Amino acid sequence: MSLNPVVESVTARIIERSKVSRRRYLALMERNRAKGVLRPKLACGNLAHAIAASSPDKPDLMRPTGTNIGVITTYNDMLSAHQPYGRYPEQIKLFAREVGATAQVAGGAPAMCDGVTQGQEGMELSLFSRDVIAMSTAVGLSHGMFEGVALLGICDKIVPGLLMGALRFGHLPAMLIPAGPMPSGLPNKEKQRIRQLYVQGKVGQDELMEAENASYHSPGTCTFYGTANTNQMMVEIMGLMMPDSAFINPNTKLRQAMTRSGIHRLAEIGLNGEDVRPLAHCVDEKAIVNAAVGLLATGGSTNHSIHLPAIARAAGILIDWEDISRLSSAVPLITRVYPSGSEDVNAFNRVGGMPTVIAELTRAGMLHKDILTVSRGGFSDYARRASLEGDEIVYTHAKPSTDTDILRDVATPFRPDGGMRLMTGNLGRAIYKSSAIAPEHLTVEAPARVFQDQHDVITAYQNGELERDVVVVVRFQGPEANGMPELHKLTPTLGVLQDRGFKVALLTDGRMSGASGKVPAAIHVGPEAQVGGPIARVRDGDMIRVCAVTGQIEALVDAAEWESRKPVAPPLPALGTGRELFALMRSVHDPAEAGGSAMLAQMDRVIEAVGDDIH
Ligand SMILES: O=C(O)[C@H](O)[C@@H](O)[C@H](O)[C@H](O)COP(=O)(O)O
Ligand code: SF4
Predict the structure, then answer these.
(1) The predicted structure's pLDDT at residue 64
(2) How much distance in Å is there from the Cα of 511 to the middle of ligand 1?
(3) Which residue ranges run through the membrane (predicted)?
(4) CA 113 to CA 226: how far, in whole Å?
């Protein structure tokens, strides 16, 4: 099947828009390769420091012709998904030695668990922690000791941050090394039901705690299709991890075999390997479009409407929400995984998983087949299912889905269009995830109730003030205001109101979790309230229309009255829990649609100043 014309035209539009920035990016990566810091150029003192503690690998590390893999690890015990990484570096060193290579931990990067910080002050550090991760990745790789990079990360801001940092060392080949989802526990839908019972006072804290522990019960990624698992999908469909490696559970033989084969392959594609594949050439416009297509076809996290533009920017590629919306009009929704469906990622993987998704979308002409991947055979390798025969991984062609309630073919999709769209109107621009919304809720027109703090919404509910059709407006939640937190704690409360038959929608310049689902939400509204955006003009009682059918976010207020209104003044910045440390980033960031990064906003200024005078 030839390439879908919308995919083709959006790709062409992105290539055209990115011509200058992509040219400069590739020139800088060539400068890094030709004149940058690489192991053979280190002085004796530099090298001695780098290998002082690295017996028994010292002799190999002294050989400039070998392959030394730099590991960036984001291990900590806060993220169940990252807990398995604690043992990975020692395993990776062993696997590297098996093929005459070496590995060293180049550095670590922080990782925030958005589940631990959800509804807490720490969530206000979450989005900008992605920049900290990118810069930490750069600090590790700046040692210049490496011919290849192994990135250990899975969750929300971590994979985007790792890629943003590693792409600035795009002259080096790199690979994401996943660790996989935890085995299924209490079903996500049942967890959500018990949360709603708790909100209504029908179950107590002990029952809620028991349900939460039964849902989040062991090492591995949470099993809903949120931002973390959307990351895994995205990295796999970009060909930046080994084929069919995203959704294998931790602590299994296949998982360990996949890590081993990844490290062996990384030695082959490293700068001194026989099949060099620099990250800068793997992440091109077509790979970015493949990621966007995967996001839409699988009903992935709304956070990727921010992360994908940021990752693309780090590779000199410019995408916007119009690109995503245009693709969404052509890309069918072919998976339903919680919150868009009832089943979890383990079930998704069981019924066919990424190989079946990639095979199906490729067959339908929805994906670029000619992208450079870390796998030897190229993109077609990713339409293959991995299994173990003894200790060896064998690949077989992907099979059709075995459960069409979870995964379908393109000819019989859940929806003819993707799970996400751009919303516009007199309230600005926003993103709306439609894949998890029942058809009867796609248009909500109701009076506004305005808040400036998510916790006040729950208080208003508890005081019985929201028992009606309502558009809950939560503003001053943008990157400039307080770091653009997720407001996912509102989901159970708004879900209760919706279940009672009220027309309910959320409108916010903040974010929602990839795990948020059933309640209509127009999010990432820009310009944000903090910079005087129109959302700062909304008053209690204004009729607001949130319509995913027409793509509209509209304050139904007399035009002259609307134009005459002044934006309300911002609240004072919040201090405590380290939030004051991030004031720097809140003052210089890009808007959400351009990726919401403070680091990239400033980077682009210096790149613009240097222009083509790269040397
Ligand atoms: O974007 C995401 O996918 C979320 O940030 C997710 O990583 C977060 O952890 C949720 O908050 C978990 O869901 P609960 O908060 O419902 O447990
Ligand atoms: S998926 Fe979310 S809640 Fe689960 S470990 Fe990752 S960041 Fe934490």
Answers:
(1) 85
(2) 11
(3) none
(4) 12
For residues 468-500, b (16+ Cβ closer than 10 Å) or e, as one string?
eebbbbbbbbbbbbbbbbbbbbbbbbbbbbbee
Which helix (H) or strand (E) covers residue 495, if one does? helix 491-499
Pocket of ligand 2 (CB under 6 A): 79-81, 113-115, 155-156, 221-222, 226, 228
Nearest to 126 by CA among 138, 114, 134, 115: 114
Q: Is 282 annotated as a binding residue?
A: no
Rg from Cα positions in the chain = 24
The gap from C-alpha 300 to its chain's centroid, in whole angstroms, comes to: 9
- For position 436, what pLDDT does the model report? 85
- Helix, strand, coil shares, percent, the chain, to 5: 45, 15, 40
* pTM (global) more than 0.90: yes
CA of 226, closest atom in ligand 2: 1
Over 90: is that where the pLDDT of 372 sits? yes
- Tens of pLDDT, residues 603-614: 999 999 999 999
SS3 555: strand
| 495 alpha carbon, closest ligand | 1
Asked if residues 38 and 144 have their Cβ atoms less than 8 Å apart, the reply is yes
Which residue has the least CA distance to atom 4 on ligand 2?
222
d(Cα 276, Cα 435) in Å, to the nearest integer? Answer: 39
Name the residue type at position 63. Answer: R
Q: Give, using CA atoms, the residue closest to atom 12 of ligand 1.
A: 115
pLDDT in tens, 181-205: 999 999 999 999 999 999 999 999 9
pLDDT at 125 over 90: yes
Residue 395's Cβ-count burial label (10 Å; 0-12, 13-18, 19+) is middle
Two structure tokens written together for 306 = 């921010």
Contact 1, 411 (CB under 8 A): no
Question: pLDDT of 8-26, one tens digit each?
Answer: 999 999 999 999 999 999 9
Q: Is pLDDT above 90 for 1?
A: no
Q: How far is the CA of 118 from the centre of ligand 1 (A)?
A: 7
Ligand 1 site-directed mutation target among 78, 118, 216, 223, most atoms within 8 Å of CB: 118
The sign one gets for the Cα dihedral 550, 551, 557, 561 is: negative
Nearest atom in ligand 1 to 230's CA: 3
Q: CA-to-CA distance for 422 and 437, rounded, in angstroms?
A: 15
Q: Which residues line ligand 1 (CB under 6 A)?
A: 114-115, 118, 156, 226-228, 301, 303, 486, 488, 513-515
* pLDDT one-digit tens code per residue, 411-460: 999 999 987 889 999 999 999 998 889 999 999 999 999 999 999 999 99
| Closest-approaching ligand to the CA atom of 227 | 1
